[in-house]
Write a structure and sequence with these properties.
- The chain has a domain at 78-105 and 122-235.
- Helices cover 58% and strands 0% of the residues.
- The chain contains eleven helices and no strands.
- The chain is elongated and about 80 Å long.
Length: 237
C-alpha cells in the first residue's frame, strides 16, 4: 500500500507540473495570430539582425555582471603573465601591503618601506610615495614625456595610468602600457627586498633593474616597448 501511495503522489506531482507548463505556454502564445501560407522563421532576440551568433550567446552569460574597466590595458598589453596578474591584483586592491595585512592582524611594516613617512597602501607605494614619484620622473623624463609623471595630487594608480595613456600619442600607448606595468612590478619587487631582505631603498637600483628587465622584455617580443624605450632605458643604468 505504501508503494502504491508513493507512486500515486509522484503521478499527481507530475500532473500538476505539466498543467503549470501548459498554462505558461498558453500565456506566451495568447494573442499570437498565425498567418496562412507564411513560412515560420526563427528570430534571435540578442542581435539586431535577428540571426544567431555564438558571440551574442557568449555575451548573454555575462549580462548583469560587473565589468572590469581597464581589462584591455592589463590583458592586451605585452608583459609576462605574472606581471599582468600582479597589476590585476593592484587594480583590485588585493596586493598584500601593510594596510591589507593589518586588517587581518598579520605582521606588517609600520610605515612605507620607501619613505617611512606614511602608511603603506598600494596606491601610495606605486605613485604616492616621493621615492616612487622620483623613479617615474626620471624614467619619463628620459622618454620625453615628463608631463605624464605622477604628481602629489595623483592618489589613485589606476586613474593616473588611464589619464597618462590617454594623454600620450596613440602610437606610443601600447608601449607605455608595458612600461608602466614594468616599473610598477620593479617597484613592488624592490619593496619586497626592503621588507624581507632588509635592503635600503635605492632609486638607482630600481632604475638598473628596470633597464635590465626592459631589455629582456624587448628581446622576448615586446616590440611596442622596444620602439618606445630602446634608446632611453639603457642610459638609466
Amino acid at each position: 500500500m505504501q508503494n502504491r501511495s508513493w507512486v500515486h503522489d509522484i503521478k499527481g506531482a507530475l500532473t500538476v507540473e505539466v498543467l503549470v507548463d501548459y498554462l505558461l505556454i498558453w500565456d506566451m502564445v495568447d494573442g499570437v495570430g498565425l498567418q496562412q501560407n507564411v513560412a515560420d522563421h526563427y528570430k534571435w532576440k540578442l542581435t539586431q539582425h535577428g540571426s544567431y551568433s555564438s558571440k551574442s550567446a557568449y555575451e548573454a552569460f555575462f549580462m548583469g555582471s560587473i565589468k572590469f574597466g581597464p581589462w584591455k590595458r592589463v590583458w592586451k598589453t605585452w608583459a609576462p603573465p605574472r606581471c599582468r596578474f600582479f597589476i590585476w591584483l593592484v587594480l583590485h586592491n588585493r596586493v598584500w601591503t601593510a594596510v591589507r595585512l593589518a586588517r587581518r592582524n598579520l605582521p606588517h611594516p609600520e610605515a612605507c618601506p620607501f619613505c617611512d613617512q606614511e602608511e603603506e597602501t598600494i596606491n601610495h607605494l606605486l605613485i604616492g610615495c616621493v621615492f616612487a614619484r622620483e623613479v617615474w620622473t626620471i624614467i619619463l623624463h628620459h622618454l620625453g614625456v615628463l608631463h605624464l609623471a605622477p604628481q602629489p595630487s595623483n592618489v589613485c594608480f589606476s586613474s593616473w595610468w588611464r589619464k597618462s595613456v590617454a594623454a600620450a600619442p596613440r602610437e606610443t600607448r601600447k608601449g607605455l602600457n608595458s612600461l608602466i606595468i614594468l616599473v610598477a612590478w620593479e617597484l613592488w619587487k624592490h619593496r619586497n627586498a626592503c621588507v624581507f631582505e632588509k635592503k635600503r631603498p635605492s632609486i638607482q637600483e630600481v632604475l638598473r633593474f628596470v633597464s635590465m628587465e626592459g631589455g629582456l622584455w624587448c628581446s622576448a617580443g615586446a616590440s611596442r616597448l622596444h620602439q618606445l624605450v630602446s634608446r632611453s632605458l639603457t642610459s638609466l643604468a
